[in-house]
């Protein structure tokens, strides 16, 4: 299985690089950044998101015809979001579509691979920075081949925390997002940041530049690849109320260690969006 998995991961890296090239080229062509919307007027998608997802899935199907897929744009088009024990590719073709539309320079192709409902490897290609983040379970995390290690900071007051505002603008949700943000700023922490992509935020945790990232409202395709990258860099994952993380729950804390994660959890005004798999929370 070892060599088989490596072969699959090598393909994921190759296709992520190919996809990243398509994204870079599309940035120079306004038509390919024409905006359509999904769940709300600020939940953006472009033909490039759809084209890149199609490219990845077709490429994988040719080599691994029995594998299954959960892709952001396929789910948006009506496919089920179900994780089984079968080998499954979890794909976000462009993580940071809003950034892409505005040429804000953090845009990633994110690919996680799951077997037995456990993420086996993750590939995040931050394509405008040309940074290829990779991690395979039990084998460490890397950026462009260099090993990654989370920050050793234990004191949240000396930390940078990353988060995002998401695309839900219902008053109650926005209130909760700001309540968490206010609580965390008031700890006080050194700073709060957000790259505009969950996958890149998680890679920043893995790289040791930010101590923790949290968000409520993300989807499994935003965080599948990043989850194994964070863990393999020595970090921890948690639910926003402190329990074990569930990648379908749309709630995540990814941190350099348990001390920082638990401290952040205390300040999060948690809520429960509809799960990706449609199950009850
Ligand atoms: O750009 P996306 O693939 O749609 O992912 C975004 C998501 O839309 C946004 O709501 C989150 O706040 C970001 O963290 C995701 O990366
Ligand atoms: Mg995304
Ligand atoms: Mg996306």
Automatic annotation (TrEMBL):
Any Pfam family from its record, for instance, is Inositol_P
**CDD domains registered for this protein in UniProt:** IMPase (cd01639)
GO MF terms here are: inositol monophosphate 1-phosphatase activity; metal ion binding
Known InterPro entries for this protein?
A: IMPase, Inositol_monoP_metal-BS, Inositol_monoPase_Li-sen, Inositol_monophosphatase-like, Inositol_monophosphatase_CS
Pathway entry: Polyol metabolism; myo-inositol biosynthesis; myo-inositol from D-glucose 6-phosphate: step 2/2
Localization: Cytoplasm
Q: Which GO terms describe its cellular component?
A: cytoplasm
> What is this enzyme's class at the first EC digit?
hydrolase
What's the domain of life for this entry?
Eukaryota
Checking Gene3D superfamilies in the record gives: 3.40.190.80, Fructose-1,6-Bisphosphatase, subunit A, domain 1
What are the entry keywords?
Cytoplasm, Hydrolase, Lithium, Magnesium, Metal-binding
In which residues is Mg(2+) bound? 72, 92, 94-95, 222
Primary subcellular site in the record, as a coarse category: cytoplasm
Q: Which reaction does it catalyse?
A: a myo-inositol phosphate + H2O = myo-inositol + phosphate; alpha-D-galactose 1-phosphate + H2O = D-galactose + phosphate; 1D-myo-inositol 2-phosphate + H2O = myo-inositol + phosphate; glycerol 2-phosphate + H2O = glycerol + phosphate
UniProt feature coiled coil, ranges: none
Q: Which cofactor does it need?
A: Mg(2+)
EC number(s) on file: 3.1.3.25
Q: Name one GO biological process term.
A: phosphatidylinositol phosphate biosynthetic process
Family per similarity comment: Belongs to the inositol monophosphatase superfamily.
Q: How does it assemble?
A: Homodimer.
The entry's protein name is Inositol-1-monophosphatase
| Taxonomic source organism | Sphaeramia orbicularis (orbiculate cardinalfish)
């Amino acid at each position: 299985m070892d060599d088989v998995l490596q072969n699959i991961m090598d393909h994921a890296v190759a296709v992520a690089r190919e996809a990243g090239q398509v994204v870079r080229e599309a940035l120079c062509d306004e038509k390919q950044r024409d905006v359509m919307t999904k769940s709300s007027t600020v939940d953006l998608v472009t033909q490039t998101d759809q084209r890149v997802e199609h490219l990845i899935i077709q490429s994988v199907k040719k080599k691994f015809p029995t594998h299954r897929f959960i892709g952001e744009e396929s789910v948006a088009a009506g496919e089920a979001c179900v994780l089984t024990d079968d080998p499954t590719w979890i794909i976000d073709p462009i993580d940071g579509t809003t950034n892409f539309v505005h040429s804000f320079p953090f845009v990633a192709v994110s690919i996680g691979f799951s077997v037995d409902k456990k993420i086996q490897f993750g590939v995040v290609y931050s394509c405008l920075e040309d940074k290829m983040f990779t991690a395979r379970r039990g084998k460490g995390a890397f950026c462009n081949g260099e090993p990654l290690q989370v920050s050793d900071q234990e004191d949240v007051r000396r930390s940078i925390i990353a988060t995002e505002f998401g695309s839900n603008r219902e008053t109650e949700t926005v209130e909760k997002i700001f309540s968490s943000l206010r609580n965390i700023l008031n700890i006080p922490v050194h700073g709060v940041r957000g790259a505009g992509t969950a996958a890149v935020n998680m890679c920043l945790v893995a790289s040791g530049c930010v101590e923790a990232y949290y968000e409520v409202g993300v989807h499994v395709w935003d965080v599948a690849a990043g989850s194994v990258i964070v863990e393999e860099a020595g970090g921890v994952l948690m639910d926003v109320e402190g329990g074990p993380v569930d990648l379908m729950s749309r709630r995540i804390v990814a941190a350099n260690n348990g001390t920082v994660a638990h401290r952040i959890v205390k300040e999060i005004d948690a809520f429960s969006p509809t799960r990706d798999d449609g199950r009850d929370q």
